[in-house]
UniProtKB/TrEMBL annotation:
Presence of keyword Signal: yes
Protein name (record): Vanadium-dependent haloperoxidase
Signal sequence region: 1-22
Region (Disordered): 148-167
Higher taxonomy: Bacteria, Pseudomonadati, Verrucomicrobiota, Opitutia, Opitutales
Amino acid sequence: MRPFLRLALLTCFLSASLAANSVIYWNEQVVSATRLSRNPPPLAGLHYGTYHVAIFDAVNGITGTYEPWLVKEAAPAGADVDAAVAGAAYTVLKEYWSNVTNPRVLKKAYDEALAAIPEGSAKVAGLAWGEKVARVVIADRADSGWNKPMPGQYTSQEPGKWRETPPGFRPPVLPFWGRVRPFTMKSQDHFRAPPPNSPESKAYAEEAAFVAKVGARDGAERSEYETLSTPFWSDDLGTATPPGHWNVIAQDIARDRNLSTEECARLFALINLAGADAGVSCWEAKFFYSTWRPETALRETTPEYNPHIELAPDFIPNMASPAFPSYPSGHSTFSAAASRIIERFFDTDDISFTVTSDGLPGVVRHFDTISEARWEVGMSRVWGGIHVMQDNIIAQKVGMDLADYIFDGFLRPRE
């Protein structure tokens, strides 16, 4: 294909994307920026949340259909919705991502969005309104504690407690995150997971044995599909992250269902409120319980501590254990929260979709239901050898309970 023809087709696609739905266009921009940022999942989730509630309030200030998130005043009469989305999105992008993304890339996306909006007073008013809303939302989150690490002792050599794992023996990631002010929860421990099975118990030993069987790097009893599920859903640094992966899934579902700009603004705000608070809730519980990783249990448990565990001193997990405590699973919490919002928004689990992966480029997977994907995400961490089943199952319940709480209590249609 000739270069100018490729460029023409790309321009047509971009124009069609902007014309169809500006929220989806700007979601694509923030996901791309997040990949470049290499932010860990809780931080990425928090910024996604700030970004999308700003977009929601900018849109809702014009349409007035739903209860606002933060900004209660109405937009100026005649303000253009797409311009408001651009103003809000670009303002938040510059605030949180300009130091990790080439500012020219962000400006190019902004200029292309504005080029698709007719000139006039509606455009000017919409831009100014979106920027104003974004500044209010950014100011509200400025003192939430997300950028204020707290020193402390977060590791322990006590049996059952988390400590750094090989090969990198990395220090804990965001150990203070459980103290960040949440968006919707009444407190950071509002949805704290219940106490896990004690690492001294027979129940824990049985779960560790299952991980040894299905989660080992070598000689595990799992299928090729299960093995590849781990990198498919890994969403490590440099990817969209787990919250962002569900943003990508949601935008494809939104396209398939021809959602309006207003509907998309609400859908993505709800998903990312859930993702932001899922990170706070999960990290609060992780460092409250400070449960060691399966590989540590399998290699270091003594008969005096837990006589039921069958030691596996040579056990190596199918993926490197992340640098934070095991219980509950972050992936399962994030995925359950986002996927449950999608189910509630469309009032059904029966949504078929295909999804790609930053971890396995070019690989596409198809799911017939939302819950099918949710379960696979959680199991991918067990097959990866880094979580026992209780980490996954309890985290999914926490994430779904959090999502129900958010969907039932926030951004509701006005009566």
